[in-house]
Automatic annotation (TrEMBL):
One of its GO terms (molecular function) is monooxygenase activity. Keywords: Flavoprotein, FMN, Monooxygenase, Oxidoreductase. Residues 33-343 form the Luciferase-like domain. FMN binds at residues 57, 101, 240. Gene3D superfamilies: Luciferase-like domain. It comes from the Bacteria. It comes from Micromonospora violae. Belongs to the NtaA/SnaA/DszA monooxygenase family. PANTHER family: ALKANESULFONATE MONOOXYGENASE-RELATED (PTHR30011), C2H2 FINGER DOMAIN TRANSCRIPTION FACTOR (EUROFUNG)-RELATED (PTHR30011:SF16). InterPro entries: Diverse_substr_monoxygenases, Luciferase-like_dom, Luciferase-like_sf, NTA_MOA. This is Alkanesulfonate monooxygenase SsuD/methylene tetrahydromethanopterin reductase-like flavin-dependent oxidoreductase (Luciferase family).
Length: 402
């Protein structure tokens, strides 16, 4: 092969990323609340040998507004818990990575660490976690422990908003640090199961993390023994300098949102600069570009599908990520161009599920293989192995032997 093969992921959300997806989906509108639906999606993604899938989640109902319910009755509202979905998928899949999303703003890191480490155990080393901040007044209202002022999109550059965003990401950084320390708090060989002496664990190989910060005070250790990957994969979605720095400090994968080839190169340069600024010593971030995809047999048919979805939605669909409408072959060409521009791979967001996911796995993936850009199957191993990330030793084990 003349080019390095790319990583390929799929982002699953409801019946698709277009707000009107449920109107044209092959799946019944009630299917997204069933295990069978999610099993089918995961099986299809694994059929295409995709590296991983992510599962969206939020602490508030879906909305088209910046903060709180929008009153619309013509769009999907309601979802299942992402971590619980991933746990359901773990025993029914064999190779694909499973990365649920949780909020760092209103969720205790001790709970997250236990849930994701458990997912890593039951999946045989295929778990990940996408932390996200909850910046809305509506979500804060569900918990009553803090007040977050309503978000005004016209005042994002004002000092109060900049401070709020900075604080939320600083809190998220501490949350990830706590989770990672808890994942390390059991050494790999802490469970000894020594029947003659009656010792199940070696207490010297369990460690207090003793973390004290502005938002959290956590003693540890965790209740879950160290998982197959040691550190499950952490992924972050980033659009600008603050989340780029967050990803550079705390993540293994960063999902970015370029609009064209030139923008790809600029974003990758900014991510690498952020890594240098924060003094990153871990393996370089795997940079995956997000793209909403709407596929059909011809460009005309794809445009018609998009037009029809927008008509049902009542306006043109826009997203934080660029939207591609065209043929699978055209998409494969675009992915090849962006890959050459510097991204390590892609997280595709199907506009309609399962329709566009099936097009990705059964047509786009073979087209990428024909171009020498994607592997023919799974090589085996953990999600870290698949992504080319080393398995880190427990920081406490390293400290004990230093």
């Amino acid at each position: 092969m003349t080019e390095k093969t790319l990583h390929l992921a799929v982002a699953l959300d409801g019946l698709g990323w277009h707000p009107a997806a449920w109107r044209l989906s092959r799946a019944d509108a009630t299917a997204l609340l069933t295990a069978r639906y999610w099993n089918t999606l995961a099986g299809e993604a694994e059929r295409g040998a995709l590296d991983l899938l992510t599962i969206e989640d939020s602490l508030g109902l879906q909305t088209s507004g910046p903060d709180g319910p929008d009153g619309r009755l013509d769009q999907v509202r309601g979802r299942l818990d992402a971590v619980q979905i991933a746990a359901r998928l773990a025993p029914l899949t064999r190779h694909i990575g499973l990365i649920p999303t949780t909020s760092t703003t209103h969720t205790e890191p001790f709970h997250v660490s236990s849930a994701v480490a458990t997912l890593d155990h039951v999946s045989g080393g295929r778990a990940g976690w996408r932390p996200r901040v909850s910046a809305t007044h509506a979500e804060a209202g569900h918990f009553g422990r803090r007040d977050i002022p309503p978000l005004d999109l016209s005042r994002l550059d004002e000092p109060e908003t900049v401070q709020l965003v900075g604080d939320l990401f600083a809190e998220a950084g501490d949350a990830v640090e706590v989770v990672r320390r808890l994942w390390d708090s059991w050494q790999d060989d802490a469970v000894i199961r020594d029947v003659p002496t009656g010792r199940f664990v070696d207490r010297e190989r369990l460690h207090y993390i003793d973390f004290t910060g502005q938002w959290f005070s956590v003693k540890g250790p965790t209740i879950v023994p160290r998982s197959p990957q040691g550190q499950p994969v952490v992924a972050a979605l980033a659009h600008s300098s603050v989340p780029y720095a967050f990803a550079a400090r705390h993540a293994d994968i960063v999902f970015v949102t370029p609009v064209d080839t030139e923008h790809v190169a600029a974003i990758v340069a900014e991510v690498r600069a952020a890594e240098e600024t924060v003094g990153r010593t871990d393996a370089p971030l795997r940079v995956l570009a997000d793209l909403v995809v709407l596929l059909d047999e011809t460009p005309t048919l794809a445009r018609r599908r998009r037009t029809r979805l927008d008509e049902l939605h009542g306006e043109e669909f826009t997203s934080d990520a660029a939207t591609f409408a065209g043929t699978p072959g055209q998409l494969a060409d675009l992915l090849a161009d962006w890959h050459r521009a510097g991204v390590d791979g892609f997280r595709l967001r199907p506009a309609v599920l399962p329709n566009d996911l099936t097009a990705i796995t059964r047509v786009v993936v073979p087209a990428l293989r024909d171009r020498g850009l994607f592997r023919a199957g799974y090589p085996g191993g953990t999600l870290r192995d698949l992504l080319g990330l080393p398995r880190p030793a427990s920081r406490y084990a390293v400290a004990a032997t230093a």
